[in-house]
Write a structure and sequence with these properties.
By secondary structure, this protein is of the alpha/beta class. The protein has helices spanning 2-15, 93-97, 196-211, 268-275, 311-322, 422-436, and strands at residues 19-33, 38-49, 67-73, 83-90, 108-119, 123-130, 137-145, 153-154, 162-167, 182-189, 223-228, 252-253, 264-265, 282-287, 294-297, 301-305, 331-332, 368-369, 388-389, 393-396, 398-405. It has three domains: 15-154, Immunoglobulin-like (Sandwich), CATH 2.60.40.3250; 162-322, Collagenase (Catalytic Domain); 331-337 and 351-421, no CATH class. It is 16% helix and 29% strand. Bound molecules: zinc ion.
């Protein structure tokens, strides 16, 4: 009997789970460089109790993104770190900044934060950034994480006050089942302590707008929404072009990259410190202002202004970027003329350069759809009723030529159109499934 027990104990390490889902490893990095070069540096490792992220498709990514984080362990003693145990893809503000004129003149560093389940053994972490032009790895950095490292800083013991507004459509008193559902945190930015009721009302409006859009509407049971009541000292957010700087929860500002409407935060460490201890995977930051603006960065965050009349469509549009990795479907006649290249297929599912259209919506071409929403949008335009075929419509991804979208209009194109186009709906559906169901290779 004793011998059998000893034999079982001895075999345990062979089958040990390489990830400990009772904890989160938070990896803080600085991505820095100019328009020509880039480097990645580790800033700090943190640990947080619990893991709210994916439990399925651990070694896969749903879309390529502009960068990836990969965790690998040794498949056998003495082997290289040859077995991928966790993978995630992302985009960054740093890479958006690189094509700007400022990047030709100076080097800048940007904070980036990634979450993974805590490894149970020595694990190689690799961060890669991809080149916009050809998709090749432009920068790569690897380091070994030992979960026993005494300098992994525990955080999240005293989280900001938070309140659930959605638990998969179940009673709000029920268990959030964060291991099964996609946890979205809605964060207050520029709301003072006295304005938290306004924030909660704004968060509920964001939720109502999201649930008014397919496929979020019919798949809302896969989500949890938690509101983070992070108070700001000042009311409103910073507007540098007016010389207006405020002390706010996540330190956001307009005029990012000197673009008036671009509202972002550079303070990712601060943002994630604020969220530590609260189950979250995706982040929506609501800014307490009526000035139009916002941004959404794939697997980083959505940031949008809550009191502009376009709030409802814009928050959903930006979540299309940050959650589903969708591209903008609008275009200018002269700007960003070299953003997408004819011999590279963009990884975003809702635009194509026709380089590899088979990987896109070819199977939907010819199928007719109409807007599935009957609401009247914020400009008072009614939704389109006639059926329109999915096809190739030239213009998208900021370019009027050389990039095509699948439908004349979409939530990723204009604020006045009431719904996502059939191509985007399919892409969002896939993303929701990816985080909640095992996907076949
Ligand atoms: Zn679309």
């Amino acid at each position: 009997m004793l011998t059998i027990v000893a034999a079982i104990v001895a075999t345990i390490p062979m089958f040990a789970q390489p990830l400990d889902f009772s904890k989160t490893l938070r990896l803080n990095y600085i991505f820095s460089g100019t328009d020509k070069d880039q480097s990645i540096t580790l800033a700090e490792l943190c640990s947080i109790e619990g893991w709210a992220g994916k439990r399925v498709n651990l070694d896969k990514v749903p879309v390529r993104g502009n960068g990836q984080l990969t965790l690998s362990v040794r498949s056998a003693e003495g082997a290289d770190f040859d077995k991928v145990i966790y993978k995630t893809s992302f985009s960054t503000l740093f890479q958006e900044w690189q094509p700007t004129e400022e990047a030709t003149k100076l080097a800048k560093g940007f904070e980036n934060v990634f979450l993974a389940p805590m490894p149970s053994e020595e694990t190689l972490v690799t961060v890669e950034l991809f080149d916009f032009k050809d998709g090749h790895v432009s920068c790569s950095y690897s380091h070994v994480v030992d979960p026993k490292d005494i300098l992994i800083r525990p955080v999240g013991m005293n989280p900001a006050p938070y309140e659930w507004i959605w638990k998969g459509g179940e009673d709000l008193a029920s268990d959030p089942k964060s291991d099964e559902r996609i946890d979205v945190a809605i964060v207050a930015e520029g709301y003072t302590e006295a304005e938290m009721e306004t924030f909660m009302a704004d968060a509920k409006e964001a939720m109502a707008s999201l649930w008014a859009h397919e496929p979020f509407k019919s798949m809302s049971d896969r989500f949890n929404l938690v509101c983070v009541k992070s108070p700001s000292k000042d009311s409103g957010v910073s507007v540098p072009r007016e010389g207006l700087w405020k002390e706010t929860a996540v330190g956001s500002n307009f005029d990012s990259f000197y673009t008036e409407r671009y509202l972002t935060t550079l303070h990712l460490f601060q943002l994630h410190d604020l969220l530590a201890g609260i189950p979250y995977e995706h982040i929506v930051i609501l800014a307490n202002t009526d000035t139009y603006g916002g941004g959404g960065i794939y697997n980083s965050y959505t940031l949008t202004t809550a009191h502009h009349p376009g709030f409802r469509p814009v928050v959903v549009h930006e979540f299309g970027h940050s959650f589903a990795g969708l591209a903008d479907e609008y275009y200018y006649d002269d700007q960003y003329s070299e953003y997408y290249y004819p011999d590279v297929e963009p990884w975003e599912k809702n635009i194509t350069t026709m380089h590899d259209f088979d990987s896109k919506w070819r199977s939907l071409v010819g199928e007719k759809f109409r807007s599935d929403d009957t609401t009247i949008d914020w400009r008072g335009k009614k939704s389109i009723k006639e059926k329109i075929a999915v096809d190739l419509y030239e213009g998208g991804g900021y370019q009027s030529k050389g990039v095509w979208r699948g439908f004349p209009d979409c939530r990723m194109n204009t604020n006045s159109y009431p719904s996502f186009c059939p191509v985007c709906r399919e892409a969002i559906r896939y993303m929701i499934d990816f985080y909640t169901k095992e996907i076949a290779d």
